[in-house]
Design a protein that fits this description.
Chain A is an alpha/beta fold and 516 residues long. Chain A contains 17 helices and 22 strands. Classes of the chains: A alpha/beta (516), B mainly alpha (351), C mainly alpha (307).
């Protein structure tokens, strides 16, 4: 089969980060080519380069053996017949399936009225080709996620795409929907469409014809599906590395008081089941320990944190905070208990701070502080400015002053403010989600140091991170979240590859036979 | 260019633009600029009496603005101040006409009821928002009509003396009248009350915990919720307070200016307040200054027609221009802040 | 006067005054479907009214009057479009400012110019044959030309919005401008167009008031109809046919209360008047909860990359 798409030495840099480092890639006609890697390995960036969202800093792209310059997504689809299906939906929720599919160029009757017959015919033709059952008139927002994704694929097909890029599209699907997706992809590839399938799940990669593994922006392995096995792929995804510079807690933590306990949480709902729904998740965090939750984004970590902090309520199970059942409490209620929980959220801007307000207002955020900063509901100005000043100096926040708007701070400095704010309360439980994402080395070290200090002071720390190195370095105990299930890592394991194996779905005790 | 300088300069430019457009309009209509400005000044600040005219217009503008400050800071676009004002006027009339109490209590009760009426009306819009996610712009806009017609209803069918033809209520009892502070003028006690309340609102926003939560919810309701703040509760309180102050604006007109309730109790004060709050950067002290300014414009403008033949609606034009320019001012400020003092655009990399 | 006769009279008045509500409501409906709220509709109307009046007087053609009305409304609405789409500023503030400006400017100009001559308004055209239909005949088929045209616009708008590609894209601009953008449609242009339609329609509505149903301009002529149009749009679920129903309903209530007032009736007419608004609020509450018809991104400026 001829090579339809080829890249040579693609390099893409953002500021100080090299997301794609000299990537050579080859896609044959009618091939389903998996692009495998963990968070931050550069998969999405590469797809965006192919789709014209980014221009590469170096390197060349060849389509049908001719050099191509893809300047924009419109360029990609119109000139090169490259279509992309991303995780967020590009569909108009109030339109029908047919309307969405033909939206770019709506078929008309005498050039001026919509030809609904033509729309229906086109959709039915496409549905026939891919052997999928959908009602062309059903409104998209009533469809399940899997069906919506099918609509997106059909849309791309309707635009005559030869090459389809799929960016982690399977993440949000229920198991049976993944099956449908793969059979649809297979039908398409048999008809000559070439597909690039981005995923972090090993078993999905092994269902494709060819696999390319990315790690830290570089290609570490490219091979046909029959030629490789799990170990090869794992080795390509994760370094065999042990991280030794850890200050491990000297206390055997499991004998300490349990601060947070989660028992049997299930969030699956029958109507719209997702693979990231929590399935019987239990964990406990003791005082004086850091429990690290490893795992690739989208495997349920966000949901677990939402359950713990009260933003969503599970169908079954309990959450106990210092033996108090907080399962049904609202988030406002739980987060008001500022003497119990300190929460460093994943999203600094949307959740963790009040961006348009001055630093001082951000530093004191937290209903539980009301008493100390607003005695009898009146602002205690000197206390607040002193606190903010101390925070700025202790956490080395680079800012023009106390009263500048929070959004004038760089991401790293804002994170320091949030950290300082949360860690200044004597909370028994600290929840930190992606605490060092996007931060430079020095700041990351700082954050790590502060978290370890808390642990040494006897607090319980729940750390969630997509960065495996961070987890290994900081955690006393590690668990992995994969497709909504929590899997324990043997105590003392520090080998990234061993943990990585679990993160991509390859571990014992799995009841379903995922491996073909 | 640093931010404060950019801010001030952009304001000046914007004021300048308004002055230019305004003056052009006057000139094109065939009037003398000097005459117009002179009349405006004389009518608003020329004598003790006219300053009084300015102040009595400043009072409702300031009170309504205080209410809007609370709402806007909470991120709520309350365009229903006009209706809330009417209901407040209605409440004050009820107490003023039908209840008999010694002076101080009479006024306090009237104030309380008018705050309550306006406040409940505002709260209702807040309720529709928190419970049904109904857009508060539309609900408060509609509620204006409802409130005004409810007031007319009571006026027409219950409050007006039976024989009378015009929909005007009976006079309020003398004990309810806000006392005149300066003999020979119309300056009533509502004005210092408004000023004191402005200080109170400033204090509320900048020095209390409630003010902090209002600011937080207005800045980022998700972030506020994360911080444990009860967003819904804050929204409801804000809308209640907002409506309440607008209600007090109505009270001031009834108890201090007209001494009864008439249909035309407000010439769009509730909408002009929007302009005031935007110009004053949603700040109570700024609102004092700006509402004085608009009061002066309204007072000075009332004689324009009689004395110079310039149609009075020019004042509405001015208000509209102000609102529009407040749309543009932040953009201008941003542009200016990015330039060096010599007018060159700075590259981001050099910062 | 017996009940039937009274009902007839009220209905006749209602239908003919519905035109001045229908026109701006249809326009506002289009604009809101594309995601833009026009608080300034009242301003477009009154500027249209004045332009129509002067146009008719000045150039002695009623059609020139209507043309000027549409143009005036268009211009003011495109100022709103400039502020809200190109500059991406807040739609409520822009609308309020343009409304007050429009009210003030028209009153100012009117007083300045000082002409208050009465013009000959449009003649009523009865359609033979249809006129004889009981009730509906005399109520609906005795309008002037513009009145008939307005009613005809309802199915035209309905077809345009539901059955043409433009209607589809217009709806996408209000529900998911990101999707429209990604599909290669120009969201700015769509919104400019929809706002322009709103301006023209509202201007024509104002023109109808001044030279179609009344016979001159007067200050405050529009009496809040621009705002009522916004209520009608919500009441009618952003759909032209139901907007027609809403316009007739609001108009009927208005005619009814005028009648009651004139009769010196004891029925509290203000309470009647608020009924449509209360119903609108109820519709809004119900709508928002089920997110049924409200354009998803109404009032939100579209900035690429911010989704």
């Amino acid at each position: 089969m001829p090579v339809i798409l080829r890249t040579e030495g693609i390099v893409k840099r953002f500021e100080k980060v090299t997301a794609n480092d000299s990537i050579d890639f080859e896609l044959k006609k009618g091939q389903i080519h998996a692009l495998l890697g963990e968070n931050g390995s550069g998969k999405s960036t590469f797809l965006n380069v192919l789709y014209g969202v980014w221009s590469p800093n170096e390197g060349r792209i060849f389509i049908h053996d001719e050099e191509a310059e893809i300047r924009s997504p419109l360029d990609a689809i119109v000139r090169y017949r490259i279509g992309k299906v991303s995780q967020h939906s590009d569909l108009v929720p109030t339109f029908s399936v047919g309307e969405n599919i033909t939206f770019r160029k709506v078929p008309t009757w005498h050039g001026f009225l919509i030809d609904r017959g033509a729309i229906r015919k086109k959709v039915l033709d496409l549905l026939d080709i891919v052997e999928v059952k959908l009602d062309p008139d059903s409104i998209v927002e009533t469809l399940s996620t899997g069906e919506q994704q099918q609509v997106e694929l059909l849309k791309v097909l309707a635009q005559d795409a030869e090459i389809i890029l799929l960016d982690e599209t399977s993440a949000l699907l229920a198991p049976h929907e993944v099956e449908s997706l793969f059979s649809l992809l297979r039908t398409l590839s048999n008809r000559g469409t070439s597909i690039v399938f981005v995923t972090h799940k090993l078993y999905e990669a092994l269902r494709c014809d060819r696999i390319t593994v990315l790690r830290e922006g570089k290609v570490t392995l490219t091979a046909d599906q029959q030629e490789v096995g799990f170990e090869d792929l794992l080795g390509a995804m994760f370094n065999q590395r042990s991280i030794n510079d850890r200050s491990r807690s000297s206390m055997p933590t499991t004998e300490q008081e349990i601060i947070l306990e989660v028992r049997g949480i299930c969030t699956e709902n029958q109507v719209n089941p997702r693979r990231s729904d929590l399935k019987n998740v239990s964990l406990s965090v003791h005082s004086g320990e850091i429990l690290g939750i490893a795992g690739i984004a989208g495997n349920g970590q966000g949901i677990l944190l939402d359950v713990i902090t009260g933003f969503c309520h599970p169908r079954e199970g309990q959450v106990l905070l210092k033996s108090e059942d907080i399962t049904r409490f609202s988030s406002t209620h739980i987060l008001r208990k500022k003497n119990l929980i300190a929460y460093i959220p994943e999203d600094r801007h949307k959740m963790g701070s009040l961006c348009t307000l001055p630093l001082t207002e951000n530093a004191i955020l937290g209903e539980g502080r009301k008493g100390s900063f607003f005695p009898r509901s009146i602002r205690h100005r000197s206390k607040i400015s002193e606190f903010t000043k101390n925070l700025i100096s202790e956490y080395e926040v680079k800012t023009a002053g106390m009263n500048v708007r929070a959004d004038s701070l760089s991401g790293g400095n804002l994170q320091k403010v949030i950290l300082g704010r949360e860690l200044s309360i004597h909370a028994d439980l600290v929840i930190a989600s992606q605490p060092s994402r996007g931060l430079d080395f020095k700041t990351t070290e700082f954050v790590h140091q502060k978290l370890m200090e808390k642990r040494n002071q006897g607090k319980a720390v729940l750390l969630v991170s997509y960065d495996l190195d961070e987890i290994i370095k900081l955690s006393d105990r590690i668990v992995v979240m994969y497709e909504g299930a929590l899997i324990e890592v043997p105590y003392g394991e520090t080998d990234a590859k061993a943990i990585g194996r679990i993160m991509v779905g390859f571990y014992e005790n799995k009841t379903e036979a995922r491996i073909e | 260019m640093n931010k404060i300088f950019a801010s001030a300069l952009s304001f000046l430019i914007v004021m300048g633009m308004i002055a230019v457009v305004f003056s052009a309009l006057i000139r094109l209509s065939g009037f003398e600029l000097i005459t117009v400005y002179r009349v405006l000044l004389a009518g608003s600040l020329g004598s003790f009496g006219t300053i009084g005219q300015t102040l009595i217009r400043m009072c409702p503008l300031l009170l309504a603005s205080l209410g809007l400050i609370i709402a806007f800071r909470c991120g709520l676009w309350n365009v229903g101040a006009e209706g809330q004002l009417f209901l407040g006027a209605f409440g004050a009339t009820l107490v003023g006409v039908y209840v008999s109490l010694p002076s101080l209590w009479h006024i306090l009760l009237a104030m309380g009821l008018s705050f309550l009426f306006g406040g409940l009306w505002g709260w209702a819009a807040g309720f529709l928002k928190t419970r049904f996610n109904a857009n508060e712009v539309i609900t408060t806009l509609m509620s204006n009509f409802i409130a005004i017609w409810i007031t007319y209803y009571f006026l027409q069918f219950h409050l007006k003396p039976v024989r009378a033809f015009n929909p005007v209520s009976k006079n309020i009892l003398p004990t309810a009248e806000l006392p005149i502070l300066i003999k020979g003028t119309l300056v009533h006690a509502g004005i210092p009350i408004a000023l004191l309340l402005a200080v109170a609102v400033w204090f509320l926003i900048h020095r209390t915990y409630l003010g902090y939560t209002i600011n937080a919810v207005g800045a980022n309701s998700a972030g506020a919720a994360y911080g444990g703040i009860r967003v819904d509760r804050t929204v409801l309180i804000s809308m209640f307070l907002s409506g309440g102050f607008a209600g007090l604006a109505g009270m001031g007109e009834v108890l201090g200016v007209h001494h009864l309730l008439i249909r035309g109790v407000s010439p769009n004060y509730g909408f002009i307040a929007i302009a005031i709050v935007l110009i004053a950067r949603v700040n109570a002290f700024g609102a004092i200054i700006v509402s004085f300014f608009f009061g002066a414009v309204l007072a000075g403008g009332r004689h324009l027609q009689a004395m110079v033949g310039v149609p009075t609606p020019l004042v509405d034009v001015l208000v509209g221009l102000f609102i529009i320019s407040m749309l543009l001012q932040p953009l201008l400020e941003k542009r200016l802040a990015e330039t060096s003092p010599w007018g060159k655009r700075m590259e981001y990399g050099s910062l | 006067m017996d009940l039937y006769e009274a009902f007839m009279n009220i209905s006749v008045a209602a239908v003919s005054s519905a035109v001045a509500l229908l026109l701006p409501a249809l326009g506002e409906g289009v604009s809101e479907r594309a995601g833009v709220l026009n608080i300034g509709t009242e301003g477009y109307m009154i500027i249209g009214a004045l332009a129509a009046y002067y146009g008719y007087l000045g150039l002695e053609s009623i059609w020139i009057g209507f043309l000027m009305a549409g143009v005036a409304g268009l211009i003011l609405s495109w100022v709103h479009a400039f502020f809200t789409i190109t500059l991406k500023r807040n739609q409520i503030v822009s609308g309020t400012g343009l409304w007050l400006f429009g009210m003030g400017f028209t009153a100012y100009l009117f007083r300045l110019v000082g002409i208050t001559a009465v013009v000959e308004k449009l003649k009523v055209l009865a359609i033979p044959g249809f006129q004889e239909i009981p009730y509906f005949g005399s109520v609906f088929f005795r309008q002037n030309v513009v009145g008939y045209a307005s009613f005809l616009l309802v199915p035209i708008f309905a077809i345009a919005l539901h059955r043409t590609p433009w209607g589809l894209v217009n709806k996408a601009a209000g529900d998911s401008p990101l999707a429209a953008d990604m599909a290669g449609h120009n969201v700015s242009m769509i919104r400019y167009l929809s706002i322009g339609i709103c301006g023209i329609m509202a201007g024509l509505g104002g023109g109808y008031l001044a030279i179609g149903s009344l016979n001159r301009f007067s200050e405050g002529l529009t009496a809040g109809r621009g705002f009522i149009a916004i209520a009608i749009v919500i009441f009618g679920g952003w759909d032209p046919k139901r907007i027609l129903g809403g316009a007739l309903f609001f108009s009927f209530i208005d005619s009814l209360q005028l009648y009651l007032q004139a009769q010196g009736s004891v029925i509290p007419y203000p309470l009647l008047i608020i009924m449509p608004y209360v119903l609108t609020l109820m519709v809004l509450a119900a709508t928002s909860k089920r997110a049924k018809n409200i354009p998803h991104k109404l009032g939100v400026p579209y900035i690429r990359g911010e989704e």
